[in-house]
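Researcher: Here's a chain I'd like modeled. Treat it as a single chain, no partners, no ligands.
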Amino acid sequence: MHSPTEPDPAPEHLAHRRARPLHWVATASAVAAVIAGAGLLQPDRATGATGTTAATGVTSGPAAASGPPATAPDARAATYPLDCKGTPQTVTDTAEGDLDGDGRPETVAAVRCDAGSGTPPHAIYVLTRGEGPGAAPRVVATLLDAARRQTATDLTVSDGTVTARLLGYSSPSVPRYSPDVKQLAKWRWTGGKFRQELTDSTAARV
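Model: Modeled as a single isolated chain. Structure tokens:
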């Protein structure tokens, strides 16, 4: 798994208190690449070739069109690479959509440790179907690493783009119930990678 801020060579396979009104003010924008850990492969549209994708383990191309519609992976059936120090993991939000253009939906899951109190940071993962009947979904990419200590909200997938609002803290002295760093993040599968567009925002008083 890879952090959105650490692009690597492509692999072989592919979430207060009421105060004054706040406005989102765009202050900066950055683009980074997230490499899928394994499995997301785009079919060859130019040739219409039929093959088997590592993402789903089923036939792609014209032969797949005659089969039943594919369903997105069940986020609560997956195992996530999130170290919760013995506490349970919890999926707080999901979104579904075809991210790599193969006609089969992936699932994007926002996951955090179920600490019982406070607001543990989120990780965001991309899931594909398992490689066989009854196989558990596979994590193929990490869009947001929990080490960044951000909370993800408003997770959506639309037209192949994953979008989430990220809330964080500018310093350890900022109260955990009042994040002061707000970002709008978008990820899109392009050229064998998830490309991230990150817009930093600040809260302006009126």
